[in-house]
Each structure stands twice: as structure tokens, then as C-alpha cells.
Amino acid sequence: YTLSTEEMENRVRAIKERLGDQLFIPGHHYQKEEVVQFSDSTGDSLQLAQVAAQNKKAKYIVFCGVHFMAETADILTDEEQIVILPDMRAGCSMADMADHHQTDRAWKILQEKFGDTILPLTYVNSTAAIKAFVGRNNGSTVTSSNAKKVVEWAFTQKERILFLPDQHLGRNTAFDLGVPLDQMAIWNPITDSLEYEGDEKDIKVILWKGHCSVHENFTVKNIENVRKNHTDMQIIVHPECSREVVAASDDNGSTKYIIDQIEAAPPGSKWAIGTEMNLVQRIIKNHPDKEIISLNPYMCPCLTMNRIDLPHLLWSLENIEKGTIDNIIKVEKSIAIDAIKALDKMLLLA
Ligand code: 13P
Ligand code: SF4
């Protein structure tokens, strides 16, 4: 677009008005301000899955988030509702760390080792095919805001869990529920093998060797620096951070949890936040009465989330009006049928 920001914003506003209820724009907390200002609903992964499932009016859902979120929205909405991702390059490096060929191989080997004692769980930050693998094997999806509840339930079903694809959320959650670190193994999908030093029969949690490339940038060194330079600052991080970082922080939780904690904090309180840059900047802007910094001074953007910007949003909306809709996210029926089982289980538990 050669248009100015103001012209693009005016066009988006006008299209939103013309399309009315036919259009719904969910926006994840990590989206840029230029996009979030137009979202009809902002939220964390769980909230966005729920609003998508509840919205029966909108024909077009223009999803401002990343690919796996748009897939989830497509799975949970009705057949005639169309989900659009404004930029197809908006993926998630963590979701890309597990593909269904790898899980098929892993499952075969793990079943040979442990028999029918494992329940698979997957973070919603995963492809629809991985959710389908989990659904086919009676497991559930989880998000960072309900992981404890779902993992607790999983242990009422089976002796062990396989947690995909984020080893950190899996480890942090299981640890909080009392599973010792020495009962957690790592599944390496590149070598198709278990990384574990003890007797394999003691394993309770098998963590897929995946991680978030944004949250790995928060380190214990960052925490030490904050503790040294700001003695009365509280440190809150997302559970996609490593175990060491979560353990050294004061608190951890989903994007919604972080927002709620800071909202409830008294004026004058001081916070260092370990999560994606756009959200940290928004929290800083919304709380001028508090002293808030990013835990990592270089800030940490999610580059793929940032690919959704004002020009891509406008382009998607103009295409809807022209009838030349592009970037439709449509999950194959055979995959959606199993993926929905895993999502429904989570929505019921949550
Ligand atoms: P939540 O919104 O569930 O906290 O997840 C953060 C995230 O990384 C989404 O990609
Ligand atoms: Fe994926 Fe991490 Fe970006 Fe979330 S922040 S979308 S987990 S890469």
C-alpha cells in the first residue's frame, strides 16, 4: 500500500462498519497495537478459542494471531464460517517443532517401551495434525492458563504423560504438581530417542524437545540484573520460559494471568515482565502509575506474530469486499474430526 497509516485505518474502520456482524476480528495479546486497535476481542489462546467457538454470527473471521490459532478457530467454528489469516507467513516456531510423522514414530517407540500407560497432551501451540494425533489417542489440548488442570486430569487417566511440543510449559506444570525433575524425560524428535539418565520405568512425564524461540531469550542472568538494580521489583514470566527462569521469578502465568496480576497491583508497584514485547509495551502504556520494564532489556518480539500488520489486515478486509478471499485456513475434515476431540476435552475441563 502507498496509503498513509491514517488512510489505511480509515479504510479498515469503514469496512468494519459495512460488514457489521458478518465480520469478527479476534486478536492475540501479542499482536501489534496497529492491529489490536481493530480487534473485536483480544485474549490469550484459551479465550480466543472460546470466543471463536461461541461466535455463530460472523461469516468471516479474520484471525490476528498465528497459524495454529486460526486453525483452531476453523476447527471450532461452523462449516460455513470462513477463517482468514492476514499473512500466511505468520506461523509459530514452537508449533513447527513437532510434525505428525515425528509423533507417529515417537508413539510407536514409546508404546513398545511403556505399553498403554501414556496419555498424550498437546499445548494448543501445535498444528491441527498434532492435535488430531492427541485426540485419536484420547488426550487433550492445554493452554498456559489451564495446563495444571489438564495435566492433573491426565494423571487420573494414565500413569504417564507425553507433553507436546513445549518442554518448558510441560516441565513447569508437572513440577508445580509435584512431579520431581528426575521423573521427567525428554523425547528428541530428531534422533527418535528418549533422553533420560535413570531407570526408564520411573518416568512419569515425557517432554517433547520443543521450545518458544521468544521466551528462551529470558535468562537467569536477566533476573539477577533486575534483582541487583531494582531491589523492590517483582518478576513475573510466562511459563514458556525455562524451569530455571520460572524458579528464579516471583510468579508465572499465561498472558491473561500476567495482565490480571498487574492490573490488580497497587499504584507505585514495580514489575519486570518476561513475555513478548508487544504485550509488555501495552501493559507499560496502560499502567503509567506503575514502574514496569521488560525482563530482557532488548525486549523480545515474536517475529511471526508481528507479520500481521495494518497493511495485511486491510488487504484481507478489502479482499472480502471484492469477493476474492485469500489466505483461507481450512483444516481437512479427517484431521478436524480428531483434533476437535482433544480441544473439546480441554474446553470441558477448563
Ligand atoms: P497464551 O496466550 O496462552 O498465554 O500463550 C502465549 C503464546 O505464546 C501464544 O503463542
Ligand atoms: Fe510461537 Fe513463541 Fe511466538 Fe507464541 S511467542 S507464537 S509460542 S514463537
Detailed description of the structure:
The strands form four sheets. The chain has a six-stranded mixed β-sheet, with helices on both faces. A four-stranded parallel β-sheet has the order 13-12-14-15, with helices on one face. The protein has a three-stranded parallel β-sheet with strand order 1-4-5, sandwiched between helices. The longest helix has 17 residues, at about 335-350. The model has no long low-confidence stretch (mean pLDDT about 95). The N and C termini lie far apart (about 40 Å). It has helices spanning about 5-20, 35, 45-55, 65-75, 100-115, 130-135, 145-155, 165-175, 220-230, 245-250, 255-265, 275-285, 310-320, 335-350; strands spanning about 25, 25-30, 40-45, 60, 80-85, 120-125, 140, 160-165, 185-190, 195, 205-210, 235, 250, 270-275, 290-295. The protein has 14 helices and 15 strands. The radius of gyration is 21 Å and the shape is globular. α10 (about 245-250) links the parallel β12 (about 235) and β13. By secondary structure, it is of the alpha/beta class. The protein folds into three domains: about 5-90 and about 305-330, 3-Layer(aba) Sandwich (Rossmann fold), CATH 3.40.50.10800; about 95-210, 3-Layer(aba) Sandwich (Rossmann fold); about 215-295, Rossmann fold, CATH 3.40.50. α1 packs across α13, α3 (about 45-55) runs parallel beside α4 and α6 packs across α14 (about 335-350). The structure holds 1,3-dihydroxyacetonephosphate and iron/sulfur cluster (SF4). The site of 1,3-dihydroxyacetonephosphate has 12 residues, from loops. Iron/sulfur cluster binds near residues 94, 125 and 304. Its cofactor is [4Fe-4S] cluster. It catalyses: iminosuccinate + dihydroxyacetone phosphate = quinolinate + phosphate + 2 H2O + H(+). It is found in: Cytoplasm. It is an enzyme of class 2 (transferase). This is Quinolinate synthase.
